[in-house]
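Give me structure tokens for this 282-residue protein.
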Amino acid sequence: MKVIIKVIIVSALLLVSKVNAQEFKGEATYKSKRKIDIKLDSTQVDSGMQERMMEMLKKQFERTYILSFNKEESLYKEEETLGAPQPQGMQVVMIGSGGSDVLYKNIKEKRFTNQNESFSKLFLIKDSIQNHKWTLGSETKNIGEYTCFKATMTREIEDIESGISFNGDKDLSRDENAPPKMKEITITAWYTPQIPVSVGPGNYHGLPGLILEVNDGTETVICSKIVLNPKKASDIVEPKKGKEVTQEAYDKIMEKKMKEMEERFRSNGRGDGENIEIRIGG
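Here you go.
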């Protein structure tokens, strides 16, 4: 009789554990900021224009994102806001900003779907999740009420320098015929095992706990609010609309479109008045 009771109790505990794992969900709010250091020629841009330009660039990178997650899936999207107005005669070209409209990740199946609108066309980028080689550290700090542990990894990226182009006369991008310059960056993340999900903001994941802060040397994304098991949680629905492509195919399309846009800018930028192109690398 005792053995039967034990089996029943153990079975019940396993069932409760399974149900809790299935129902565990949450929403995290993240805010991003980017360090911008662009030197402007005072002979071509007066102090007033420079101040407006820096303020506009700062607002371009101050964004708010919502991450909905459970044990197996997550959905990361930017909170809808009015875009920062651009001063007349100024064109901002974001290169390597890493933004995405809706990013769905399935950790269990090791794949992602990124629905992204670029150049007035909707894309559905589907590919495998990249395995990040994190180095776990023992250093800790508190973010809100959560104890977070430090993790780092290095990554090699193309060194796209920030630059300014006046009326198309000075293009600070690299020579198209030259091999791309590469640089190594260190990415620092802070994660909390108190929330046992292997996800985080943007393309970051793979740690034994929710990532609450990440910094790549120029951009910082930090969690400002967490709600676990909310009563009105947003459904995690994988995007379905858009032209389906792989990440590699999408990158090639964007590279081609950027070159076309640069050519149009150079050919149209020699009219009356002053046109300024600002290129942000990273």
